[in-house]
Amino acid sequence: MAQQEVLTSHPFNNVTENIFSKIGANLHRRQNHPICIIKEAIYDFFNSQRPGTYAKFDELHPVVSAAANFDEMLVPAGHVSRSPNDTYYIDADTVLRCHTSAHQAATLRQGHPAFLITGDVYRRDSIDQSHYPVFHQMEGLRVLEPDEYGGDPAAGAAAAERELKELLEGLAQHLFGSGTECRWVDAYFPFTTPSFELEIFFNGQWLEVLGCGVVEQQILDKNGFEGRRAWAFGLGLERLAMVLFQIPDIRLFWAEDQRFLKQFRAGDLRTAFKPYSKYPACFKDVSFWLPETGFTENNLCEVVRGAAGDLVEAVELIDAFTHPKTGRTSNCFRISYRSMERSLNDEEINAIQAQVREELTAKLGAELR
Predict the structure, then answer these.
(1) Are residues 70 and 202 in the same domain?
(2) 68: CB partners within 8 A, 6+ apart
């Protein structure tokens, strides 16, 4: 699908202009960008483990079928991630991928037994300094050869789990330093069993860095590797970069400000971000009676992002009140506006806030107070 077809008049389409503008930015392919630096560091590690083994893909378009994004990855029909509240739909059958796993089945069908897929992914989410509707993931997978586990399925699952944990602990030490303490936490993902999350102890606290597991057998059986066993992982590049480079606000990754971009160099994982002048925030509150149905905080955040773009820093519920007689509920949200590059003036923020108020009524059916 061509990029211009992402914005359509289809009634199911919920891709805003703000989100559309991010498609094709390809931060993960800009050589000196922190996202690309992390990607290349991970490539280097996997190349060192099994030279020439892993096919690498970082140009796959983010528009995918809902079937590839959900069905082929065994996401249940009623799973919350399928909701338009969480996922950007172009039409009822087409989405902006919400994970790089959306390409896993197709890549297996192409005959690749080991690969790393990197790309931008899209999710409707809250607004704060660590969440953004577009971020970058890397998907890794390797199918084991039968002679690596004697052809026995149970032994194959154990071998896949063992190799996976050894590799990812090695990756954590490659990125964060030798001696980095790791621990494994049981988790649930529809497409792996058993499933795990890897946590590392870094700067005095435990941090979750990725999810992984042994690939569900039916995914392999349906996509060209019947009877084989495999492992897979998925990690967020922003999460790693914010920790490694001490970047405090996820919006900075999208900045074109040279004071940010010139601080990083390809191959250097030890750069600590040096904050430059931080411009003051502007706070605006908005109170409204909730409509009887259909309101979610994600929908509110989309309205605010649509009006403010990257000028919005946070949206926080600061008060909720239910009228004792009518049973109606009122919410008050505080919106923090802050530019990473300049001071904001009252005139432009008032104009943005007026647009937010108008669209709360027009799009979400809220009654302003």
Answers:
(1) yes
(2) 97, 102, 103, 105, 106
